[in-house]
Structures are given as structure tokens and as C-alpha cells.
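Researcher: Structure prediction, please.
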Amino acid sequence: MMQDWFQALLQPQENGIVIFISGFLLALGLYHLLLYFQNKDRAYLYYALYALLVFIYTFHRAKHFVLADLVAGWRPYIKFLYDPIKWLYATVYMFFAITFVDLDVYFPHFTRRLKIFLKIGLGILGLLLLMAILSHNRLILDYAYNFVFLPVIFILSLYILFLIYRSKSPVKYYLLVGAGSYLLLTSYSHYLTYTGRPFRILFYGVTAFEMILFALGLGYKQKLILEEKNLWQGLIIKEHEKNLELKESLTKRLGEEVDSKIAQIDTLIQEKRIVEQKKMALAYSKQTLQLRLQAVQAQMNPHFLFNALNSIKNFIIKNDQKQAVTYLSKFAKLIRMVLYNAKIPETSLKDELALMALYVEVENMRFNNGIDFEIKTEKHIDLNAVKVPPMILQALVENAIWHGLAPKKGFKKLLLNIQKDAPYIKITIEDNGIGRHKAQQIRSQKNINLKKESMGIKITEERLAVYTQAFKNKFKINFIDLYDDRQQPTGTRVEIYIPVA
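Model: Predicted structure follows.
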């Protein structure tokens, strides 16, 4: 009885095992292909391709199988492609392992070289297949696979399993158990086949086992990704709530200060103290303007805030965790710096440039870092000693990015140049964008409010006017349109002269 059962296992093509395993592989492959289109995770794609390639390698071997009967006339061609199919599914297996455990995160240099090696292997396979077809001799493929590719890929697989074991991937044990079992048992199965004692049930059994294990691993990995998405969404909401609380607190304080100044002026009017009235009115005018501008600084552009939050959301949806963390960290730092600057009347030019560098960096991440941003400073200028109103450059830098560079295709350059031009510090903001005239045409066609840009410039000029009241020399702002030899616009230059004495 036991001997009959063992003999039945030796004939998987006849006892229905091949039919079961082939149908199982086909179902898994098609199901995970649909999951790939839903989740856009390449691990699902490589898993689906691997399952379908192994299905192609096995299904036609079964007897009394409807799919095998359909391709009965194609069996000589399928057998001719045995070695290329095995070569292909071994390569896809490697790509699946890399993607499944995120090997490029833990060993980036090795992973990059491994991918190049696998792609070169596919190129060599294509060349060998062409030679075999032209010569009508599949021994070229047989020798290349069994005596070159198979030993190399076996040794490489062992080393990759060692690296995966060293990694901190939460799903590594699914791959280690599945791939380790597959390597050991399929190697033993090949040995038995070449020694005349075939026991192919080992191949089919371990293939089904590892496919089930990998499917469980993919499900667990997707569960971890969803948990991490929920965690980051919670952090973003908390950070946004903190910023709203800070904004409300600052707005309340500014309102109280304005009310206090108005009350003081009412008292002076009632007492008919004309001289004190004028002085207080001037102080009130200056402080009210400063408070209004502080409120503008504290709130920034709502579109910028919501676009930044949407960018973080998109990074998370795309499973780009590193970009999401980096962007969120820089965005939170920028908001804190803006709220801090709203409380002070002036800042050093060094801190102002640092804030602008961070602002451009945050905006630039939404352009896939497509803007080449540079700050140049003459060596003899002490940036700590030069004082300017906080965030005085933000509106002008924002205009350069969104109205000059954003609509442009190709290389994008933004330059901040700091020079001494006694008795001024000259700050130049220059972009190689589409120019002011073309930008105005685009905004007119899209029915965009043209007052927004002019309002930002007007507020900047008002702040500079208040800040430079005590200086002998007044500020200057020049807008210069740049053209090439053919009078085609090549960008915009804004020159800001801030007195230092």
C-alpha cells in the first residue's frame, strides 16, 4: 500500500498534482497582477510574473488537462524554450526578492550592481536564444543555463539570502524560509533527476509552499504600509492642528495690541493733546502696519500650506516614505521659523537667507528638485551684522518660482546675489523664467487674479518704507526684464537696495 502511494507520487503528471499546481499558479499570478494595478507595488508585479512563468513551464506537462490539450501542437516550441523560461523566472525571482524586502534601502550599492547584472543576463539570454533559433540547436541554451547561469545564480542567491538575513526588513523571514526551502529542495530534485532517480514532486510541492509563503508576506507587508500611512496621516493632522493653534494665538495677541493702541489714541484725542496726538498717531500707524505685516508673515500663503500638505499626502500614497519624512520635517521647520519671525521687528541677513533657502528647498521638492537654486555673497560682507525686515524676500522669491520658473520647460535657475553697493546692501533675485510679460498673459488666460502679485510687492515696499524711516537713504526696488540677442525674454531680475547707514 505504502509502495503504491509512493509510486503514485513519482508520477505527478498523471496523478493530478501538476494540474492542481498549474491551476494554483495561474490563479495566483492573475490575482496578484490585479493587485499590482490597484497598489502600484512592483513586488506584486514580479510575484505575478514569476507565478505565470512557472505556470507556463509546468502546465503543458499534465495529462488530461484542458489547457495542456489546447497547446498540444505547440509543445515542441515550448520544450525548445524550457531553458529560457527557467532563466526568465529565476531573474524575475531575483527582482521580486529585491523589491519584496526593499534590499536597495539596506544595501543600495550592491542592489544597483545586481540589477545591472540581471539586465545584462537578460541581454545575453536574448542573444543565445537568437543563436539557438538560427542554428536549430537548443543545446546552446541547455549548456549556457545548466553550466553557467544556474551555478552563478545559485551562489548569488545564497549571498543575497545572507544579506537579507542581515537586513532589518520586517518581512525578511517570509523570503528566507520560502527561498531557502526552494533552493535546497529544487537543488536536490535536480540532483535526483540527473542521477536517474527523478522525484519531481519535490519541485511542485516546494513551489506551492513558497508561493503561499510569499503571498502571506505580501499581505503582511501591505498591512505594515497601511499602518504606517495611518500613522503619518495622524502626525500630519497633529502638526497642522499645532500650527493652527499657534496662528490663532498670534492673531489674538495682535488684535489685543491693536485694540490697546486704538484706546490710547482715543484718550489723547479726548485730552486735546495735539502734539502727543500726532506722535502717537505716527507710532500707531507704524505699529499697526507692522502688526498687519506680521499677520501676513504668520499666515503665509494658504495655497502654499495646502499644496505642501498635499505633496506630503502624495508621497505617502506612493509609498515614498523617505521623501514624506524629509518633506514633513522641512515643512514643519519652515512653519516654525515663519511663526518665530512674525514676533520680531528685524532679523540678520544671514537668517533671512537661511529661511529663503529652506523655503525654496520645500517648494523645489514639489518640482522634483528641478530648480537649480544658488546664493552668492561677496566675501567681505558680514551677513550677521546686516539687518533686514524678516521675510522681506519671500514674496519676490515666490513670484520668481511660480510665475517665472514653474511654467518654463527645461533648465530652471534661481539666483540670490548679495553685494555691497555703499551705502546700500544690494540683493539681486534673478531667474531664467518666461519673463513678466509672458507670465501676465498666462494668468490673464487662466482668469487668475492679477492683484495677488502686485499686493505682495506692495506689502514688501510698505514694510521697507517703515523699516528705513530712520535711515538717511531710502530703499529702492528695480524690476528688470532680461532678453537675449533676438529680444526673446530670458527671465527677470529684481534688485533690492537696503540702506545700512
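Model: The first strand starts at residue 347 and ends at 348.
Researcher: Thanks, that helps.
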